[in-house]
Amino acid sequence: MDNFIFVLEIIGTIAFASSGAMVAIEKKMDIFGVNILGATTAVGGGMMRDIILGVTPPTAFSKPVYILFSILTSTLLFAIMYTNPEIMDSKIKNQFYDKIMLICDTAGLGIFTVVGIQTASRIIPYDNAFFFIFIGVLTGVGGGVLRDIMAGETPYILVREIYASAAIAGGIVCVVCRESMGEAAGVILGLAVTVVIRTLAALFHWNLFRIH
């Protein structure tokens, strides 16, 4: 199970680093800014989780492999965009940017939500479903919130299609299934529910109620 979770973490790190790097590139940041935003998006939620759980130093510093992967991913994306500037032309950019952001953000959200729950359940010696779900959602959305604030945008989770709500639903499924079906089933089903809800919300523009 530990190896499976580690693989998920690496995939999630690459996904979130890609979304952070894409936002930075779209904002015309230099390579340093692209790497900072990529790394912040990738490990920001996990650092928030570790601070609340009392894990010191945070995992991002005690296991620098996550920051390394985020920097490699961000640098690679920057190199691709730098050598192929036509990708950022208006027509191509709209299609390419939106698809990359949806895929990467959705994958990262689902993965880090269930990873956050797994981490909390191993550190806290008693069952606390509300706390586990809170930590999972925070891990899933925290990096994206930091990314948007640093990029001068209203956080994605507050204005776009159903996002944090997908993580909450996936977190609930993960916690419930962990108890009845085991850790592996909880992780897989929680991840699947988060990804499916978020993807459908983006494709069909599902939103929570708002005042127009």
From TrEMBL:
Residues 7-80, 103-178 form the Glycine transporter domain. InterPro entries: Gly_transporter. The chain crosses the membrane at residues 6-25, 32-53, 65-84, 96-117, 129-150, 162-181, 187-209. GO terms for cellular component: plasma membrane. It is found in: Cell membrane. Keywords: Cell membrane, Membrane, Transmembrane, Transmembrane helix. It is a multi-pass membrane protein. Belongs to the UPF0126 family. This is TRIC cation channel family protein. It comes from Candidatus Blautia merdavium. The lineage of its organism: Bacteria, Bacillati, Bacillota, Clostridia, Lachnospirales.
